[in-house]
Amino acid sequence: MKLQLQIATADDVPQLVTLRNAVSQHLTSRYGRGHWSLSTTGNGVLFSMRMGTVYAARFRNKLVATLTLSTRKPWAIDKSYFSKSKSPLYLTSMAVAPEHQRKEIGRLCMQQAMEIARGWPSDAIRLDTYDAEAGGGEFYRKCGFCEVGRARYRDSPLIFFEMLL
User: Fold this and answer.
1) What Å distances lie between residue 97 and 26, 49, 92, CA to CA?
2) Which own/partner pairs from 104-109 qualify as long-range (CB within 8 Å, at least 24 positions apart)?
3) Full set of structural domains in the chain with CATH
4) pTM beyond 0.90
5) What is the DSSP string of 15-38?
6) What are the pLDDT digits (tens) for 121-162?
């Protein structure tokens, strides 16, 4: 499957909102209500674009996945769990359209995110995911990320992962 991450623009905001909300609804229907049940708005996506670089992946001209890379540490991440790094990137808002999940799209996006990070240049990718069945822990392990810690933030159990580049 040919898939390329491209920097999203303001024109992509409506599709990004639709994608993120579809994933949120899918997780809620599958695992019940949780922090993953929150809706995304256009303003939320635009905020992500100001705080980092939002990427979009298309298949047959349809937006099928997104992720954000940023040099800014997200509020829920505790740096003390991670290896020393001079220029880490933080991966947030990873989402694959429900109808395209389990078809290698997420893995392809992660491979491209690693290439982007190496060219940034960055020496690590850091992220957190929910420590729950709805979380992406197993996905990130399969992509080669190492678990570095667990913590609770605002009643959300989290797992921290990193990949050293």
Assistant:
1) 9, 20, 16
2) 104/1, 105/1, 105/3, 105/57, 105/59, 105/64, 105/65, 106/65, 106/139, 106/143, 107/142, 107/143, 108/1, 108/3, 108/57, 109/3, 109/5, 109/55, 109/57, 109/65, 109/67
3) 5-164 (3.40.630.30)
4) yes
5) HHHHHHHHHHHHHHHHH-SSGGG-
6) 999 999 999 999 999 999 999 999 999 999 998 888 999 999
